[in-house]
Design goal:
single chain; 317 residues; mainly beta; Chondroitinase Ac, Chain A, domain 3; Immunoglobulin-like; 2 domains; eight-stranded antiparallel β-sheet; five-stranded antiparallel β-sheet; 4 helices; 25 strands
């Protein structure tokens, strides 16, 4: 009897020890702890292609249908021609959900919202190091579209207001406008980095400044791709591929649009989300923009799947 009791006691002690050890174990490496993790692990992923410069010209097709043709002699590293194997790394941002999940936006550097025809990040590495961003020979990019007319070309700048993101003109002399041909915007582009086909959001309405507070913000306002901060505020235009990020500070836990940049009368959805210490928060509000609008978004704790569902739903909004 004593032996039985001792055995039971040993099992209980071992179970307690195991449970304590299990609770003390570090979280899995793929567990999302903050907004930066969310962008890297749940957002649009890098697509990689490796080939030899001897095989140039070479065309790669991304999952969303974007085609990129790399010509011979395009790559240099520190001004010297690159030979041997290179690895292309690309991220496609064709939908509103992809822009939001990537921590990117459609802000023009002037503050006016852009309407996106598709954007991407493009890098090429040799020996594990990025080649020169300015290409010796431009690449050819084919961006699928479902509309007619023209688009304009932009490059991304991630030093706006210190560490925020917006789109600006490509370098002087580069191609600026592209006409659709057989449902494709095809153009030559001489720079690596963030590439965008956008037009200015076609709203002739009077413009105003919008302010949005997040009174129960669990962290701080996030910058480009959440390199710092946890909390985003976006305005998503109804029926248009517009993802305007509000990031200009305007008091504690409050941001505003660029001054006189938001069209009065436009319909859309304000969203805010934050991930901090492994907890998820989300808020949304459908609005019609009014003059000098001030809004408050109160975050509610939720789940990763719920946040992803809400962001994915923006594509049909």
């Amino acid at each position: 009897m004593k032996t039985t009791k001792l055995f039971v006691t040993m099992i209980a002690a071992a179970s307690c020890f195991y449970a304590c050890k299990k609770n003390d174990a570090p979280p899995p490496e793929d567990q999302i702890k903050n907004t930066r993790d969310f962008i890297e692990k749940a957002g649009p992923q890098i697509q990689s292609f490796t080939f030899s410069t001897a095989d140039l010209p070479k065309t790669v097709t991304l999952k969303g249908g974007v085609k990129i043709t790399f010509p011979a002699g395009a790559f240099q590293q520190n001004g010297e021609a690159v030979t041997g194997n290179v690895t292309v790394e690309a991220i496609e941002l064709l939908k509103r959900s992809q822009l939001v999940m990537a921590g990117v936006n459609t802000n023009h550097i002037s503050g006016m919202p852009l309407q996106s025809d598709g954007s991407l990040f493009l890098d090429v590495k040799s020996g594990g190091q990025s080649v020169d961003a300015e290409l010796k020979v431009p690449v050819r990019i084919e961006m699928p579209t479902d509309r007619d007319g023209f688009t304009q070309l932009w490059i991304g700048a991630d030093t706006v207001q210190g560490n925020q993101f917006a789109w600006q003109n490509p370098r002087q002399g580069a191609q600026r406008e592209v006409k659709v041909d057989n449902f494709v915007f095809a153009f030559d582009f001489g720079e690596l980095g963030w590439v965008n086909c956008d037009i200015f959001w076609n709203m002739s309405n009077p413009k105003t400044t919008m302010k949005v507070s997040v009174p129960n913000n669990p962290g701080t306002m996030a910058n480009f791709r959440a390199m710092e901060g946890e909390t985003y505020v976006f305005f998503i235009a109804k029926g248009d591929n517009v993802v305007a990020q509000l990031y200009t500070p305007d008091g504690e836990n409050q941001v505003k649009s660029y001054d006189n940049a938001m069209p009065v009368g436009a319909e859309g959805r304000l969203i805010s989300f934050s991930i901090k210490d492994g907890k998820y928060y989300f808020a949304k509000k459908d609005i019609t923009i009014t003059e000098n609008q001030v809004e408050a978004l109160t975050l509610a704790e939720t789940t990763e799947s719920a946040v992803q569902t809400e962001i994915t739903a923006l594509d049909g909004f």
